[in-house]
UniProtKB/TrEMBL annotation:
PANTHER family: HYDROLASE, PUTATIVE (AFU_ORTHOLOGUE AFUA_2G14860)-RELATED, MONOACYLGLYCEROL LIPASE. Residues 22-245 form the AB hydrolase-1 domain. It comes from Pseudomonas rhizosphaerae. It comes from the Bacteria. It holds the Pfam family Abhydrolase_1. GO terms for molecular function: catalytic activity. One of its GO terms (cellular component) is membrane. This is 3-oxoadipate enol-lactonase.
């Protein structure tokens, strides 16, 4: 088991960092925290400097100011890179973290080495949009764990839930322990910003991977394909029989996909710089 000591930036972002090599930063989803990336730390640490942090309003990080926009979440990542003295990094965002990663890629392209968007949303249908807006209202009225049972059923296979009751219970507790206002501010962005600067995605020049699970009901294969069509150098990966929380449920599968992509991205970067491997 890996035991890492959380550190903190001057602006109040809590993060974990381990390993040596090119930096790779992971961004979690709404209601979760940096601890979700344990499987990725194990798989990528031998090759990369792996960094995971708590989004605004989550875990041990600072709360977002009222009305904070998606750019404010991208600015949090920028402050983390500056704290770590990293000129650029590969950014991997899951679900809401994928929206943050996209915003970071659009606003700070010079700080991006490669982009990975996992199980994230794009161009919701009217029915999908109505569903997530309704869940936002329930969270506003009843708190962060208002939809916990339904969320866990969407996120994990029934088999995984049955085989890992302690982990599922811990995730349920994580959801319930979120700061209500921090959670709601973030969830409102998650619910409304799936088309954030969609017409500008063609400006992203870094290597990109857009991936989701075949059985992810909220971040569907169609969404992944439509998003990738907007990004010039994007690959698409649809993982067979995987649901939303595939980085947690199937870390080896996800890690192999990430390592393959990151190896190819480094090769392309070396070629662009005239470096012979």
């Amino acid at each position: 088991m890996i035991r890492l000591t959380p550190e903190r930036t001057a602006a109040g972002t809590s993060y974990l960092a381990a390993g040596d090599g090119p930096p790779v930063v992971f961004i979690h989803g709404v209601g979760l925290n940096k601890e979700m990336w344990g499987g990725q730390f194990v798989g990528l640490m031998p090759h990369y400097r792996v960094i995971a942090y708590d989004m605004l309003g989550h875990g041990a990080s600072a709360l977002p100011a009222p009305g904070t926009a998606l750019l404010g979440y991208a600015d949090q990542l920028l402050e983390l890179l500056e704290h770590l003295q990293l000129p650029a990094a590969t950014v991997i965002g899951f679900s809401m973290g994928g929206l943050v990663a996209r915003a970071f890629a659009l606003h700070y392209p010079e700080r991006l080495q490669a982009l990975v968007v996992l199980n994230s949303v794009f161009n919701r249908s009217a029915e999908q949009r109505a569903g997530v807006i309704a869940r936002t209202g329930q969270a506003a009225e009843h708190g962060p764990d208002a939809n916990a049972e339904a969320a866990l059923s969407r996120w994990f296979s029934r088999e995984y839930q049955a085989a890992n009751p302690a982990q599922i219970a811990a995730l349920r507790e994580t959801l319930a322990s979120n700061d209500p206002q921090g959670y709601l501010t973030t969830y409102e962005l998650f619910a409304t910003q799936d088309m954030y600067r969609a017409d500008d995605l063609g400006s992203i020049q870094a290597p990109a991977l857009i991936a989701t699970g075949e059985l992810d009901p909220g971040s569907t294969p169609q969404m992944a394909r439509e998003m990738a069509e907007r990004i010039p150098h994007a690959e698409v990966a649809i993982l067979h029989e995987q649901r939303h929380m595939m980085p947690v449920e199937s870390p080896r599968l996800v890690n192999q996909m990430l390592l393959n992509f990151l190896t190819q991205a480094r090769r392309l970067d070396n070629q662009a710089q005239g470096i012979v491997a």
